[in-house]
Amino acid sequence: MRHQGLYRFRRDGNFKNRMETNEYGIDYYVKSGFDKKYPAGTSARADIEKKVIKDYVEFGQDVCKRELKQQWRSDDFNYPTPNYGIFKNRMETNEYGIDYYVKSGFDKKYPAGTSARADIEKKVIKDYVEFGQDVCKRELKQQWRSDDLNYPTPNCDKLRQMRIKPIA
């Protein structure tokens, strides 16, 4: 996950100097003297930043897979994708119309209009909004970096349509 001990994603030990990749603005930590050995703007620095981004993406994908597996371990509902195991029936939250998927028998166990169903829909909405806000933050950061006010921010736009503050 780390390239020859050149960087870490967390501040620890000798890795105390915070850096940020030019592309995507990913934070990483390096040892003192890194800037002298790998000056900004050099191909050596660019190569390291490419590796930082690659490692960060791989790490993020692993974390995401673990989190999704945890979410999908619910006995009765699943979101956001259909056909994962036995969760094949598409549902939609009353508020905002967010899709989620359930297994057969869900309506019997959690009838529409009950507090149990409302609690599940609140969790679906909460998770959806938190994820949307995280993605929106990245979109806004990229928009700012691009210096283009027309840079697309579809997740922020969706949150605004829902009348939800795009950034928590």
UniProtKB/TrEMBL annotation:
Keywords: Membrane, Transmembrane, Transmembrane helix. Residues 6-72, 87-143 form the DUF1977 domain. One of its GO terms (molecular function) is Hsp70 protein binding. GO terms for cellular component: endoplasmic reticulum membrane. It comes from the Eukaryota. It holds the Pfam family DUF1977. Its main location: membrane. It is found in: Membrane. One of its GO terms (biological process) is cellular response to misfolded protein. It is a single-pass membrane protein. This is Chaperone protein dnaJ 49. It comes from Artemisia annua.
